[in-house]
Amino acid sequence: MGLDYQGKDFMNVIGDRRSCRFYDPNRPVEPEKIQAICQAARTASHMGNANAVTITIVSKQETKDAFTKIVSSFNIPMAQMAPVSLVFALDRKWWFEGLPEMLPKIFKLGAINPSHGWSLDNIENSTLPRLTTFPDPVVSYMLSCETGMAMAQAQLMATALGLGCCAYAGVPPKIGELLGFPETAQFVWAMAIGYPGETVESMGMRPRRAYGDIIYQEKFGTPAIADPAVDEELTKLGVLQPESALTPERLAAINAAAEQMGLPTRTDENG
Ligand SMILES: Cc1cc2nc3c(=O)[nH]c(=O)nc-3n(C[C@H](O)[C@H](O)[C@H](O)COP(=O)(O)O)c2cc1C
Question: Mutate which of 13, 17, 19, 22 to test ligand 1's pocket (most atoms within 8 Å of Cβ)?
Answer without folding.
Answer: 19
